[in-house]
Amino acid sequence: MAARDNVAEDMATKELVVERVFDAPRERVFDMFTQPEHLQKWWGPKRVSITLAEFDARPGGKIFTAERSPDGAMNYIAGVVREIERPSRVVFAIHFADADRRRVAPPVGSGLPATWTEELVSSITFTAEGRRTRVTIRTLSGFTAEWGKLARLGWGESLDKLDQAIADHMRSRQ
Fold first, then answer.
1. How confident is the model at residue 76 (pLDDT cuts 50, 70, 90)?
2. Closest Cα partner for 125 from 82, 166, 85, 80?
3. Could you count the other beta carbons within 10 Å of the beta carbon of residue 45?
4. Strands of 62-68's sheet, edge to edge?
5. What single string gives the DSSP state of each residue in 44-71?
6. pTM for this structure?
7. What is the band of 114 on the pLDDT scale with cuts at 50, 70, 90?
8. Which of 85, 146, 148, 171 has the greatest CB tally within 10 Å of its CB?
9. Mean pLDDT in the chain?
10. Banded pLDDT at 5 (limits 50, 70, 90)
11. Which H helix or E strand runs over 139?
């Protein structure tokens, strides 16, 4: 259903760009991206399950996800919505957290050093292309090349799951 990702990495500017075109109207894709009940279906790599997802879709709104890895380990992400313009744009900043939402060091295997304390700032744009929607994700931060590769893989798998969630949602409404 979705076109292949158009991915560009420019480690000199510390920007990761991932694009995907979805076969759905922009409003639907935006809502699936930002509403917690849908976020739980698509956030994170394929091998993790999201046991809790919160996304308060307003400027200053909180984000929190609880991810269970295949070995049962839990990882948490917390953050804040910086900007949101339905249905065209959302900007958020996230960081690794514990179950009490306190900032913690990145988990082992994340591709980030244990001393890394920055936020990951992502700007997502939703562009209508007829009945289709182009989603462009730009993540800025002082990340490492290893993290960039893992993040690209993670976003790719997340967008695969988002594509399936959109298709399932559209079928359920027919």
1. very high
2. 85
3. 16
4. 6-10, 15-22, 132-140, 120-129, 89-97, 74-85, 62-68, 49-55
5. S-TT-EEEEEEE--STT-EEEEEEE-TT
6. 0.88
7. confident
8. 148
9. 89
10. low
11. strand 132-140
Question: How do 132-140 and 49-55 pair as beta strands?
Answer: unpaired
Query: Would you say the C-alpha torsion 103, 104, 105, 107 has a positive or negative sign?
Result: negative
Q: Are 99 and 66 in contact (CB under 8 A)?
A: yes
- Kindly report the three-state secondary structure assignment for every residue of 80-133: EEEEEECCCEEEEEEEEECCCCCECCCCCCCCCCCCCCCCEEEEEEEEEECCEE
Both tokens of 40, joined, read 């739980």
Length of the chain: 174
Neighbours of 72 (CB within 10 A): 6
Dig out the tokens for 136 from the structure.
């462009």
Residue 130 region, left (φ>0) first, then alpha (ψ -120 to 50), else beta? left
